[in-house]
Structure formats: structure tokens, C-alpha cells
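Quick one: co-fold with zinc ion.
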Amino acid sequence: MEIIVLGSGTSHGVPMIACDCAVCRSDDPRDRRSRASVHVVMNGLRIQIDATPEFRVQVLRESIPSIDLFILTHGHADHILGMDDLRRYCDLRADGTLPVYCHEEGEGRVRAIYPYALAPRGEKPDGYARFDLRRLPARLDLPEGVIESTLLPHGRIETLGLVFTEAGSGRRFAYYTDCKSVPPAARDLARSADLLLLDGLRPTPHPTHQSIPEALAVVADIAPRQTYLTHLTHAVAHRDESSYLPKEVGFAFDGLRVCL
Ligand SMILES: [Zn+2]
Ligand SMILES: [Zn+2]
Ligand SMILES: [Zn+2]
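Sure, here it is.
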């Protein structure tokens, strides 16, 4: 299984517009953070999680050739506003249609923003996106592996937490972005993960996201083999990683690739 971090930044991105703080002016490329998203390759199946406002730039940068399945973790702008650019990946598919998995809140947002992408079969004008909207079940069994999902609290809404288990290798990857906490059921689901990508917004508390200390307490409990914190703000400088974090935990960065 390969995990490609397309973006590791919070909703503002880093550098933030009209900010001249040290991190926004940093010349470390790992401090340049587009909005949070990952691409997972599981036994050759290409799964795209979220489409940020920088989605087109991210997939060109990482040379993503195709997408078999799309998952929307929730409907916030920084996760959904790149979905129009899925049009190219729809065109590359035999039936021109991309399976899009979401929960109720995400589905409502997709229907409100992209009604033209939900045209019935045969009515799709060339070049437009067409989504086959589906509710993500708690467990989705595929020939290439299993995708399990759980709900994570994120202010007034919930985010889909995702755990991928590759068939054959048994490797497990958990993606828990945009959450204020990780409930017991979600901790149990991620407990044997080889890799965890976890919301760890900034050092100080936030009403709808985990702070770095809150995230590290979750990591200590789940004890995955390897963890990267993501959805990072300009309050985090990559070079301070070792002073903030234990050695099995790192800050994610755009372009990070992990092979499990
Ligand atoms: Zn700044
Ligand atoms: Zn969010
Ligand atoms: Zn977000």
C-alpha cells in the first residue's frame, strides 16, 4: 500500500494570505502546506480522499494517473471545493462516472454544490464530472482490501474516519483528519494500524480540531507503528518537529509518500 500526502495544511493553507510570520515566510518547502488530502494506492486500486481547492495542482505535482474511487470525509470547503476537477478522472473511466462515497452531511453538500455532476446516465455533456453518489458503509469489502469507516466529532458535524486494510499484505492505514477527539470505537479501529495520519492542528487548543498535545495523547493510546500529524497551521514550523514530537511521530508535509 502506498500513501501519498497531497496536502497537509489547515483551511487557510500555509503561507496564509496576508501573513508575514516566520512560518509563512519560511524557505523550508515542508512549511508550504496546501489543504489536507491524501491519495491511497491499495493493491493497485487508486482511492482519492477529499478534493481541496488545490486539487488540480496537487495531482499534477504527484502525477496521479487515475482515480477508481473517491471518498469525501466531510463537506467543509477545504475538502470539497476541488471536486469539479475530478472531471478529467471521470472522462478517463470507461463509463465516465466516478463512484463518490460520503456520509449524510457530505452528500448534502455535494448535491448543493455539484448538481450538474449528478446527471442521470446518458445526460452527461462531454468533459463534465459525473458522480455516482454512495453512502460509505461501516465496512466496504473490495477485492483489493477493506475500507472501514467511523465517525469523528468535528464541531457541529462529524467527519468520516477511514481505515484501509490491504488484502494479502494485511497492511493497515488510518486517516483521521478534521476531528476534535477520537472516540473509543475509532481508537479500537485504528489500534493495529501501520500508519496513522491524524489531525494535530497547532500547539494551542481549538474548538473543532485536536491540538498537538491532544493528538499526542491519542497516539500514545492507539500506539500505531508510525504517525504523522496533519491539517497543520502556520503555528507549526517543520524544523521544530523533534522538539515537539516523539521519534515515531512526525509532521506530514505535501508530497510525503509512505509505502507500507
Ligand atoms: Zn503566518
Ligand atoms: Zn473540517
Ligand atoms: Zn479541514
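If it helps, The radius of gyration is 17 Å.
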